[in-house]
């Protein structure tokens, strides 16, 4: 179970202000490309699950993940997640030809997708249909070590606009949320609780109001 605090920032000026405030704590910045897949019969989305390939920094890394049963309430996200690294060249081949996802059968996320959600069988008798690529979006993620917490400041670039968000994964989300909110309020940084995931925004085709 992945548990994260997710606070939405209203605009680029607020994102820049927070980036400046956190600059002494900056560790690294990732350039991410997120590509999503579903089954040909919507086996994943019909059960509120999603399969994602995430490419980092000009394909220096690729992570395949399967997320399911996501709940986002009062700025705290909880989601079941299985993820692992794969060779970026294999990931790119899967984007070009989604049926190739069936070739990474030793992936825990893929096996769960096949066994629990019935997607991915590419041969008669294996069960399930194949995969389709849904497209995706890019994300610039600044990572910060702040008060012993790992903060992620996101600038997410969709075809239809850009969203800004700060996230922090923690087993104690309410305490972290309070700490983050106090920091933002003390520095007059506007924010609100995130109400939908980045994937949900992508699929809706419009920015949240």
Automatic annotation (TrEMBL):
Matching SUPFAM superfamilies: CYTH-like phosphatases
Q: Which GO terms describe its molecular function?
A: pyrophosphatase activity
PROSITE patterns of this UniProt entry? CYTH
Pfam families associated with the record: CYTH
Record's InterPro entries? Answer: CYTH-like_dom_sf, CYTH_domain
Residues annotated as domain CYTH? 1-206
What name has this protein been given in UniProt? CYTH domain-containing protein
**Species of origin:** Aquilegia coerulea (Rocky mountain columbine)
């Amino acid at each position: 179970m992945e548990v994260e605090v997710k606070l939405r920032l209203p605009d680029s000026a607020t994102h820049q202000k927070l980036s400046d405030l956190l600059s002494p704590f900056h560790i690294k910045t990732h350039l991410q490309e997120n590509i999503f897949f579903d089954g040909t019969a919507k086996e994943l989305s019909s059960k509120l699950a999603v399969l994602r390939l995430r490419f980092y920094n000009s394909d220096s890394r690729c992570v395949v993940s399967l997320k399911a049963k996501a709940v986002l309430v009062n700025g705290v996200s909880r989601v079941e997640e299985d993820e692992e690294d794969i060779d970026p060249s294999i990931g790119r081949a899967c984007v070009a030809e989604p049926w190739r996802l069936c070739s990474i059968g030793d992936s825990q996320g893929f096996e769960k997708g096949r066994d629990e959600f019935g997607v991915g069988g590419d041969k008669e008798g294996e069960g399930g249909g194949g995969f389709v690529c849904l497209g995706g979006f890019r994300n610039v993620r600044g990572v910060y070590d702040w008060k012993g917490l790992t903060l992620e400041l996101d600038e997410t670039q969709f075809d239809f606009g850009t969203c800004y968000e700060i996230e922090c994964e923690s087993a104690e989300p309410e305490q972290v949320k309070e700490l983050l909110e106090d920091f933002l309020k003390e520095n007059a940084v506007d924010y609100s609780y995130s109400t939908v995931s980045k994937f949900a925004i992508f699929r809706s085709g419009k920015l949240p109001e």
